[in-house]
Amino acid sequence: MAEPPIFRPSFGNKPENLVGRDAALNTLVQCFDSYPGMRERAVLITGQRGMGKTAMLLEASDLADSKGFVAVRTTCGTALLDNILDGLQHAGNLMIAQKKPPIKGFSAGALGFSFGLTFTDEARQSYGFKTKLGMVCERLEEKNLGVVILVDEVRPNSEPMRQLATAYQELAGDGRNLALIMAGLPSVVSALLEEETLTFLNRATKVRLGSIAESSVRQYYSSAFSRSGRSIAIKTLRDAAAATEGFPYMLQLIGYYLVSLTNDGEQITSETLDEALILARADLDENVFLPMVRPLSQTDIAFLEAMAQDNGTSKTADIQKRLGMSQGSVQSYRKRLIDAGIVISPRRGELCFVVPMLADYLRRRDGSRT
Ligand SMILES: Nc1ncnc2c1ncn2[C@@H]1O[C@H](COP(=O)(O)OP(=O)(O)OP(=O)(O)O)[C@@H](O)[C@H]1O
Ligand SMILES: [Mg+2]
């Protein structure tokens, strides 16, 4: 099979290299290395679309393997609990079979299991999720293996999510070697944290995925282009890295178009970069900004458009003037947009976009309507 391409702009795939996420990776390592039941064992990853939440969960899944944890990765939906148990049974049996030196099989006749991690019919029918999960954990602990549950695209108001949270808390309290890593959009996660049964999540370790440092992008581009057989002048390399604004999906898009617009052995020129940027921005609008703006109200959008008139940081007082709003309304829209993970307040009285390119998108969108 041919080598996979270096740049793969998509969603939900593992990048060739997880650029500029050392701090976040460190948190994942600590999650596995900490003692069962510690707050490090529950991690909540947030980030806007394309910031790399799923990529982090995929990384956590690989890390789990090397740390002696059986991992199950699933999205939050109605089948969440069944998916977790099925996935753990499958991955656990595989891990036991593949371990080198081989781990001896499970003792026969453990209560509730017919063989390996498969429940007896009776256990399957009579026990609830928490009991079954606890049984799987205990059984894997016999083999010195922990369990990590990775939940992507968490949602509020989900009964399975509540059951998972309760089970996690109780089993972690009993000292089971269990970890829980969840990921979601900032707006969704803030709604989740408000739920009564899920307040323990407020104590979970938070990983907020923001933009990647430009220097890390530059370094990575330099290595990736040279491995793709393309040369590039330092200035163009800097411009390309700056144009990503540290946004992982954009890093993949720009890298992808720069490589596909040139042939092996050719140079990536500033004209190639101009062309790549047009294509990358069109994909970004379609796949990130459109879905980000769609659920917002007219006033949310007007608020963001008022911010987009500034270059970089906006003063709340200026936004208030531009919109002719009361101070109270400005504060409540400000909070909504911060909770939605779209803007942040770098200093008191100031606001800026989490993904700065959104400002550019709003200006272009505004321009195309008038
Ligand atoms: N640190 C990184 N370095 C390089 N590429 C990355 C990094 N993080 C993510 N990517 C790439 O960026 C793209 C988007 O990442 P991912 O699908 O993980 O985002 P997401 O936050 O899960 O988005 P969504 O909210 O839409 O599910 C993918 O192509 C992924 O491989
Ligand atoms: Mg994702």
Provide a count of the helices.
Answer: 15
Oligomeric organization of the protein chains:
single chain
State the separation between the terminal residues, measured CA to CA. Answer: 51 Å
Helix content: 40-55%
Q: According to CATH, what is the class of the largest domain?
A: Alpha Beta
Whole-number total of structural domains: 3
Q: Main sheet: which strands, in order across?
A: 2-5-6-1-7
Ligands, deduplicated: adenosine-5'-triphosphate, magnesium ion
CATH architecture of the largest domain: 3-Layer(aba) Sandwich
Q: Major β-sheet, in short?
A: 5 strands, parallel
Q: How big is the Rg? A: 24 Å
Counting DSSP E segments of at least 2 residues, the number of strands comes to 12
> What low-confidence regions span 5 or more consecutive residues with pLDDT below 50?
none
Element-level helix/strand string: HEHEHEEHHEHEHEHEHHEHHEHHEEH
What percent strand?
5-15%
Report what the structure shows.
The protein is an alpha/beta fold. The chain has 3 domains: 22-208, 3-Layer(aba) Sandwich (Rossmann fold), CATH 3.40.50.300; 214-292, Helicase, Ruva Protein, domain 3; 296-369, Winged helix-like DNA-binding domain superfamily/Winged helix DNA-binding domain (Arc Repressor Mutant, subunit A), CATH 1.10.10.10. The protein is built from 15 helices and 12 strands. Helix 9 packs across helix 10, helix 10 (248-260) packs antiparallel against helix 11 (270-293) and helix 13 (316-323) packs across helix 14 (327-339). The longest helix is centred in the last third of the chain and has 24 residues, at 270-293. The chain is globular. The mean pLDDT is 91. Bound molecules: adenosine-5'-triphosphate (ATP) and magnesium ion. Adenosine-5'-triphosphate (ATP) is lined by residues 8-13, 15, 18-21, 47, 49-55, 185, 212, 248-249, 251-252.
